[in-house]
C-alpha cells in the first residue's frame, strides 16, 4: 500500500518560519529573503516526508484560506488597487495596515472547525475584483518544482464559500464567479490537486448538497488530477453522491469519522478510484493502535484493490508538533506519544504491515501491541475519583440567582456606569520572555524571577490606574500561556519543551498533554493576584482558565469520558477559586475561550457536549459568594446558535470577541443582556492597528442600541499579550476616552 499525509505543519521544526515572519514584519529582512526562507522550510519538509510515496504542498505564508483568496482573486478593490507590493497586500489583509492614506482592516479570523487553528475569513462583496494575483502562483510553483510526487493542497470551493463572509452579492452571481475562479486556478496548477472539503462533515441540507455537487460536476474536466479530501468527521449526508463524483481520489477520516467505514460497507467504494485512507490521528498525539487500525484496513481492503489505497493521516498534521525528539514524558506515557514525524513513521509501518498476510507475527506489530497495552493500563487517582462520585446537584448551583447577585455586587464594587476593563493579559515583551527563559534554565533564582514579575505587576497596575480603567488585572506576566501555565501546576498534565503548534500566522502554542487524573497540587494564581490587589483600592479581577479550554488546548487522554476529565479540572479550579475568595478577591474571571470551538460539528451531538461544558463551568464556580462577581470570557464564538448554553454558565459578566465580526452577534445577545452584564470587545487586539477614539465611540454607540446601558461593559475583544506595549496603551487610552465621552453625554 502507498502512503501520504493529508497535510503537514508549517511553522518550522524550530519555529523558523515564525521567526522569519516576525523579523520580516519588523522590516529587518527583504521580500526576497522571506520567500527564500519559505523555500528552505519547504525543502526541509520534503526531507521529513521523504519516505512517503506522495507529499502534500500545503505551505502558506500566513494562512491557507488567505492564500487561496489571492490565487482566486477574492480581493477587495481597495487592496488590489493600493500601492502595496504583493506581499504587502497579503499581510495587510492578514494583520491590518495603517499608514497615512491607506487604512486596511484585517479580515476576520475563525476557528478552523474544531481546532485551535484560526483561519482567515475572506470577504466576497461587490468590491471583490476576481483578479487572481499570479505572484502567489509563481512563489508556490517554486516550492514544488523539485518534487514530482507532490500534490497542491487548497481548500475546495464548497468549504471556501462556507467559511467566507459573503456580503451583498446575489447567490447565483458569487457562485458563478467563484467557480470560474477555481476553473482559472486549476488550469494554471500543474499536476495533482487536493481540494480540502472538511465542510462536508457538517450536517448538510439538500440545497447545500446540490450546491456542492454542482461545483464538482462543473470541475469534471480536471477530475483526472483531483483528490477530494474530507476530515474532522464522516460524510454521512453525501457519501453516495460523493464517491460517484468525477475525481481521481477521495480522502476519508477513519479516526473522527465514526460512520465512514459503515458507509463503505453499506454503499461500497468505486474500485477504480483512489482512497486516501486516514487512519492515523492528526489532532491527537497518542500512539496508533495497530491492531485496531489494521483490522479496519482489512475491512476496507475488501472493497477496492490495494493499489488504490493510500494510507494517510486522518487530517492535516498541522495540529500536532513536529517531533518528540528531545522531549521526555512521564513514565505512564513514555513510548505512547507521537508527533508529526513519528506519525509519518506510523503510516509507513502500517503500510508495511498491511501488505503482510500474517502481520501479527511481525516484530513491529508486537512492539506496538506492547506499547499500547502499557498506555491503556494507567493507574487511577482514587481520591480524585471519590471526590467526583460525591458530587450532587447543589455542587452545580450558586446560592442566589443572577438578578439578586448583580445588585449585591454593584454595591460592593461601586463602579462607574459602562465600567472599563481588559481581558487579562498585558503585552508579553521580549524582556519578559527572556526572564522566563532564564528562570526555566536555572540561570535566574526563583526569588529574583518572582521579584521581577512583581515589578511588572506593579507597573501594570500603575499604568491601568493612570489610564483610568475601572476593573484592573495583574497582567498575566507569570504565564507563558493561559493553558500551559495551569498545566504546569496540575497533576495529571505535562508540558513539552519544543512541541509548538501554529495557532494563527506566526502565533504558536505548546499544547500540554493531559494524560492522567487531574488534581491541584498547590495554588496557582493566588500569590500574583493578591499581590496586585494589595497595590490598589480598585478591584483586581482574578483570571483563571476554564475546564473546556484547558482540555481543548491540550492533547487530551481518550480513555475516559470528556465529562470525567472536565469535572476533574473543574474541581481543581474550584479549590483555587475558593482560596482567592478567602483572600478577599472581589471579581473572578474564568475564561472559556474554547467553549464554542469544541462544539461538535454535528448538531445531534451538541446538547450532550454543552451539558458537560456548562456543568463543568458551574462546578468550578458555584461556591462563589453571591457578592463576588463571576466573569467569563470567550473568543471566536458565534453564540447565535447556542444562547441557552451561554445562559447556562450562569456568569454575572460575559466579555466576548465582537469587533471583527458584525453586529449580528450582538443582536443575538439582546436577550442575554436583559438580565446579565456583557462586554462585547470594542476593538480588535489581533491587529497591530490602533483604533481611534472616534471609531471606538461609534462602536459603543452601536452597542448601546442593543444592550441596556446598565448592563454594558467596555473592553478590548481579547487579551493584550500579543501586542506591543505602545500599541496596547494607545488603544486602551482611546477606549477610555471614548467611554468617558459617552458617559458625559449620557449622564451629565
Ligand atoms: N493555548 C492557547 N490557545 C489560544 C490562545 C492562547 O492564548 N493560548 N489564544 C487564542 C489566540 N491564539 C494565540 C496563540 C498563541 C499566542 C502567543 O502569543 N504565542 C506566543 C508563544 C507564547 C509562549 O508560550 N511563550 C513562551 C516561550 C517564548 C519563546 O519563544 N521563548 C524563546 C526565548 C525568549 C527570547 O529570547 O525572546 C525561545 O524559547 O526561543 C514564554 O513566553 O515563555 C508566540 O507564538 O510567540 C497568542 C494567541 C486562541 N488560542
Ligand atoms: Zn480571548
Automatic annotation (TrEMBL):
Residues 3-302 form the Cobalamin-independent methionine synthase MetE N-terminal domain. One of its GO terms (biological process) is methylation. The active site is at residue 686. Residues 418-740 form the Cobalamin-independent methionine synthase MetE C-terminal/archaeal domain. L-homocysteine binds at residues 423-425, 591. Catalyzes the transfer of a methyl group from 5-methyltetrahydrofolate to homocysteine resulting in methionine formation. This is 5-methyltetrahydropteroyltriglutamate--homocysteine S-methyltransferase. The lineage of its organism: Bacteria, Pseudomonadati, Spirochaetota, Spirochaetia, Brevinematales.
Amino acid at each position: 500500500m502507498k502512503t501520504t499525509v493529508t497535510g503537514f505543519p508549517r511553522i518550522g521544526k524550530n519555529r523558523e518560519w515564525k521567526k522569519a515572519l516576525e523579523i520580516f514584519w519588523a522590516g529587518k529582512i527583504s521580500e526576497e529573503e522571506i520567500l527564500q526562507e519559505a523555500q528552505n522550510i519547504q525543502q526541509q519538509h520534503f526531507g521529513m516526508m521523504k519516505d512517503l510515496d506522495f507529499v502534500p504542498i500545503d505551505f502558506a505564508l500566513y494562512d491557507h484560506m488567505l492564500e487561496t483568496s489571492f490565487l482566486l482573486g477574492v480581493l477587495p478593490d481597495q487592496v488590489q488597487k493600493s500601492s502595496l507590493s504583493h506581499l504587502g497586500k497579503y499581510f495587510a489583509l492578514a494583520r491590518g495596515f495603517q499608514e497615512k492614506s491607506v487604512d486596511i482592516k484585517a479580515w476576520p479570523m475563525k476557528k478552523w472547525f474544531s481546532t485551535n487553528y484560526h483561519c482567515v475569513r475572506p470577504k466576497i462583496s461587490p468590491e471583490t475584483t476576481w483578479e487572481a494575483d499570479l505572484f502567489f502562483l509563481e512563489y508556490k510553483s517554486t516550492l514544488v518544482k523539485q518534487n514530482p510526487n507532490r500534490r497542491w493542497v487548497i481548500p475546495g470551493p464548497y468549504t471556501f464559500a462556507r467559511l467566507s463572509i459573503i456580503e451583498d452579492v446575489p447567490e447565483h452571481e458569487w457562485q458563478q464567479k467563484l467557480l470560474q475562479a477555481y476553473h482559472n486556478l486549476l488550469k494554471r496548477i500543474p499536476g495533482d490537486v487536493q481540494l480540502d472539503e472538511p465542510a462536508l462533515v457538517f450536517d448538510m441540507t439538500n440545497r447545500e448538497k446540490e450546491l456542492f455537487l454542482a461545483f464538482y460536476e462543473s470541475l469534471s474536466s480536471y477530475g483526472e488530477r483531483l483528490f477530494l479530501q474530507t476530515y474532522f468527521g464522516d460524510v454521512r449526508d453525501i457519501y453516495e453522491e460523493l464517491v460517484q463524483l468525477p475525481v481521481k481520489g477521495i480522502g476519508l477520516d477513519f479516526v473522527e469519522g465514526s460512520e465512514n467505514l459503515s458507509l463503505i460497507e453499506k454503499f461500497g467504494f468505486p474500485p477504480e478510484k483512489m482512497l486516501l485512507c486516514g487512519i492515523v490521528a492528526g489532532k491527537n498525539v497518542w500512539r496508533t493502535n495497530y491492531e485496531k487500525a489494521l483490522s479496519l484496513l482489512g475491512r476496507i481492503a475488501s472493497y477496492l484493490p490495494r493499489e488504490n489505497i493510500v494510507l494517510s493521516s486522518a487530517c492535516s498534521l498541522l495540529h500536532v508538533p513536529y517531533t518528540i525528539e528531545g522531549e521526555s514524558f512521564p513514565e505512564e506515557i513514555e513510548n505512547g506519544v507521537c508527533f508529526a514525524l513519528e506519525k509519518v513513521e506510523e503510516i509507513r509501518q502500517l503500510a508495511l504491515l498491511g501488505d503482510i498476510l500474517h502481520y501479527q507475527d511481525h516484530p513491529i506489530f508486537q512492539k506496538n501491541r506492547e506499547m499500547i497495552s502499557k498506555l491503556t493500563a494507567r493507574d487511577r487517582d482514587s481520591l480524585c475519583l471519590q471526590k467526583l462520585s460525591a458530587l450532587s446537584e447543589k455542587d452545580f448551583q450558586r446560592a442566589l440567582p443572577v438578578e439578586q447577585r448583580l445588585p449585591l455586587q454593584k454595591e460592593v464594587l461601586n463602579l462607574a456606569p459602562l465600567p472599563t476593563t481588559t481581558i487579562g493579559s498585558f503585552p508579553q515583551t521580549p524582556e519578559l520572555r527572556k526572564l522566563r527563559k532564564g528562570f526555566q534554565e536555572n540561570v535566574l533564582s526563583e526569588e529574583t524571577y518572582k521579584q521581577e514579575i512583581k515589578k511588572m505587576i506593579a507597573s501594570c497596575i500603575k499604568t491601568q490606574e493612570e489610564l483610568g480603567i475601572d476593573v484592573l488585572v495583574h497582567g498575566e506576566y507569570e504565564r507563558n500561556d493561559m493553558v500551559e501555565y495551569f498545566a504546569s501546576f496540575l497533576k495529571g498534565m505535562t508540558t513539552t519543551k519544543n512541541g509548538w503548534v501554529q495557532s494563527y500566522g506566526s502565533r504558536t502554542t505548546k499544547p500540554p498533554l493531559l494524560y492522567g487524573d487531574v488534581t491541584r497540587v498547590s495554588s496557582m494564581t493566588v500569590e500574583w493576584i493578591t499581590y496586585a490587589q494589595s497595590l490598589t483600592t480598585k478591584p483586581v479581577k482574578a483570571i483563571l482558565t476554564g475546564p473546556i479550554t484547558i482540555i481543548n488546548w491540550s492533547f487530551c487522554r481518550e480513555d475516559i469520558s470528556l465529562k470525567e476529565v472536565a469535572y476533574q479540572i473543574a474541581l481543581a479550579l474550584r479549590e483555587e477559586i475558593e482560596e482567592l475568595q478567602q483572600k478577599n478577591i472581589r471579581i473572578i474571571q474564568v475564561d472559556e475561550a474554547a467553549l464554542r470551538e469544541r462544539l461538535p460539528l454535528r448538531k445531534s451531538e451538541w446538547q450532550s457536549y454543552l451539558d458537560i461544558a456548562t456543568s463543568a463551568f458551574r462546578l468550578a464556580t458555584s461556591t462563589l459568594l453571591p457578592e463576588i462577581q463571576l466573569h467569563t470570557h470567550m473568543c471566536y464564538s458565534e453564540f447565535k446558535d447556542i444562547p441557552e448554553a451561554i445562559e447556562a454558565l450562569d456568569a454575572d459578566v460575559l466579555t466576548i470577541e465582537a469587533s471583527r465580526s458584525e453586529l449580528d452577534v450582538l443582536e443575538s445577545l439582546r436577550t442575554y443582556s436583559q438580565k446579565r452584564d456583557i462586554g462585547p470587545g470594542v476593538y480588535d487586539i489581533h491587529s497591530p492597528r490602533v483604533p481611534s477614539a472616534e471609531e471606538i465611540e461609534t462602536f459603543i454607540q452601536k452597542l448601546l442600541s442593543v444592550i441596556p446601558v446598565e448592563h454594558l461593559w467596555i473592553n478590548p475583544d481579547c487579551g493584550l499579550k500579543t501586542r506591543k506595549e505602545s500599541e496596547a496603551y494607545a488603544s486602551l487610552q482611546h477606549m477610555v476616552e471614548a467611554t468617558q465621552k459617552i458617559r458625559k453625554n449620557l449622564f451629565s
